[in-house]
Every structure is written in C-alpha cells, then in structure tokens.
Design goal:
The structure is a homodimer. Chain A is 37% helix and 20% strand. The first copy, chain A, is an alpha/beta fold. An eight-stranded mixed sheet of chain A has the order 3-2-1-4-5-8-9-10, sandwiched between helices. Chain A starts with a strand and ends with a strand.
Chain lengths: 230, 230
C-alpha cells in the first residue's frame, strides 16, 4: 500500500522504516526537501540528522508535505502536535479527501518547561485528533499509537510478549478496521487494540501523556506501556 | 489510628468500612448530621441511603465536617471534586493543620453531559490536589487511589492477584510513607505503589479519568485497573 508520512522526526522515521520492512511503498513529507536532505545537525533529542538516517533508509521516498499527502492512499500524521494542523494544511485538504489519516501526534505544550502539559484549546474539552477532524471533515481521522514510545508502536512484542494496550478512536468504523490491519502487521493482537469509539476518544488518549511522562521519569526509560488488568 | 473522612458517598463509605475492619477509629464528616441520618433516598448511582448503610456500619462515627476533621489524625477527602475545596473549608484549616490529608477525589465536570471532562481551572496546568495544597499550605496533601473504582482501592487483590498500580504524589516524603503504610494494609504491595513525586503529580493522575471512563464504557464494569508492562 502507498503510505504518506507527514513529519520526518524520530516517530515518523520509526513508522517509515517499519512500513518499508512490511513492503509498503512510503513517502515522507517535509516542508523543504532540499533543506531536509542537507541537514547535518542532530535533533533536540540527540537523534541523527535526517540525511544521516536516510543513508540507510533510502527505500523511503522524500517529498513535500503535499507530495507525500498526494502519494499516500493512507496518510500518517507524525508531526509535533503544536505544528500538526499547519503541516496538514500545507499537505492540503484535497490531498487528504476521502483518505484515512492516522494521527499519532500529541498536543504537548513545552512553553512552561518540563514536563510538558497539553496545548491550550487542545485539551479536556477538545483534542488534537478532534481539531484535525474538524479541519478536514472529508478525511477519516483515526487516532491511535499516541500513548507510547515509538519503538513500541511498531514492535509491541519488545516488552511483555506484546500483551499491553493500544487505543483506537475515530468516527468511521471501516477506516478503523483498515488501520487495525496495519496495527496487526506491527504486531498488535486484536484483543490489545481497544476501540474507544469516535474521535472524541482522542481526548482520553492524549490526556494520558502526563501520566506517561511521570512514569517515564520514574522508569528512566520509554520502553513500557499500560496493560488493563480485570 | 483516628481517621476522619470528609464525604459520605460510596467512596467514603468503602474507605470507612475497610478502615474499621482494620481496627482504625473512624469518623465520617457531613454537612448536616441530622439530615444525613434522616435521609432515605438512594443516591444518583443507586447506592442505598446513608442511614440504610449506617445500620450495618455503626462502628463508624458521624459528625460535621469540622468534627471529623478535628477527630482525625489523618483526614481523607472523599467528596466530589467539584465540592472538595468548599467541604474542606467547612472542615476548617485549623482542623487540618500539620495533618496528612489523603485526597482521593477527582475534579469531574458533569456540566457538559457524559462522559465528564475535568473542571475548568482544575486541569492540565493545575489539579484538584494542587488546589487543595495551595488552599491549605500547612496540611500535607497526599494524592492517591483516585485512578480506580473504590472497590479496588481497598481490595486490590480482587483482580489480577493485586498486580496493578496505584500512584502516589505529594510534597512531603514522610507523609507519603505514612499513607503507604495504610495502602499496604489495604493490600497494595510496595512495588505497585508508584511515587510520581510532588503534588503536581495530581495533574497526571486526575488526567487519567477520561481514559478510565472510556475503558469502563468498553468493559461495562469498573473492576479493572492499569498495570505497567516493561
């Protein structure tokens, strides 16, 4: 399947590599292709530059946001939450029309220091997932994978034999089922993909970031996830 | 130990019964003792009236908020989050001075229908736990147990052999250690009591309510909790 990924950070790269491994055809989208390919500085988290990463991941295509949006039969939003709507507007509503947009971003607000809270206007009574759905009413937004470290998104079996949960929400059941198929390919079992209903569910999963960050600060490591005991 | 409980709803009753079973001396506080003892109507959740419950739980003392606050060496806030500060002001700062206040309430906002969000001003960049700590600076507020159904608070072994998590936060380490002793009595193992630091941790645990409510709506049952897989 042709998949476009909006964003070239650690999360986008992790998803892109895995999708290529799974024989999908992947194009990542960025604001300025020439600048991105010429970048040599590590990012704020110490990850290698895109050009360094790209040397060993050259089956991934690179294009503008609009080109990646147009390319994808399914599009993934892997931008920072604070930039997501802007990046998706540059991607273009027409390039997203009648397509599934998998939103894995979180509206983290770093303006008050660490740990981040959630961005004003995108928390509690709204969410990034809902905001994107409202901005692109002809797109089927599916929120998932946003409650964990990216290494687990594409390899849940890294811990606890994969027996921990990933939430999914969105207004369109058929779209969620298609996304579940990709999640299955990543290693998620059906019983651990928990459907929490329409896109308002994004409020609930994005609200898990504060406890996720607290647990990470205790664990000193992102390789953990939540399981539901019943 | 003498323990005061502010609030007489299902959560307060559950905690009170368990503390009596553990041989603690318990007084519950309410706004109007005569009215509470005379009540015969079930509450909004279908729980029996207080007077009905009290027939089989008469080792628990009943007093005003202030009397219960004065009585307790440790005080528990088991009111609805929207009423907590008001109820604690009626309890009286002097009755809470230099005492541990265990805050198990959540600032749920039912004004926009179900499921509730969190109350304006008490979410994201603030929390009920912090608001109480700011209002009563001479009290040691410890936030815990607010991320689960009350039946599990006092009996974690009801599911999964008790192997699931309870978060604790507060500014005073000694106070948290005393609360941990009570949590141990409830059946919580030390390794499943996760200390997430100062009272700002209340932002993180109160923010878990939206996902808790979503999972409950999927499970059709409150007898579940989160475990951390690593």
């Amino acid at each position: 399947m042709k998949i476009g990924i909006i964003g070239t950070g650690a999360v986008g790269r992790t998803i892109a590599s895995k999708l290529v491994e799974l024989k999908h055809d992947v194009m990542m989208g960025t604001r300025d292709v020439t600048e991105k390919l010429g970048s040599t500085a590590k990012d704020a988290y110490g990850n290698p530059s895109f050009s360094e990463w790209y040397k060993t991941n050259n089956k991934v295509k690179l294009g503008t946001f609009a080109e990646a949006g147009s390319f994808g039969e399914i599009v993934v939003n892997a931008t920072h939450g604070g930039s997501s709507v802007t990046a998706l507007l540059l991607t273009g509503a027409k390039n997203l029309t009648k397509k599934i947009l998998i939103d894995i971003a979180n509206p983290l607000d770093f303006s008050n220091g660490m740990p981040p809270g959630l961005l004003p206007g995108l928390n509690n009574t709204n969410s990034l997932g809902e905001e994107i759905q409202k901005t692109f009413p002809d797109t089927m937004v599916v929120k998932t994978l946003n409650t964990m470290w990216c290494g687990l998104m594409i390899n849940p079996k890294l811990i606890g034999n994969g027996d921990h949960v990933n939430f999914i929400s969105g207004n369109n059941t058929e779209a969620k089922n298609k996304v579940k198929t990709i999640l299955n390919q990543f290693g998620w079992s059906d019983e651990n993909i928990i459907d929490i209903g329409d896109i308002k569910g994004a409020r609930a999963t994005e609200s898990m970031l504060p406890i996720w960050l607290k647990v990470m600060s205790v664990m000193k490591n992102g390789a953990f996830n939540f399981k539901i005991v019943k």
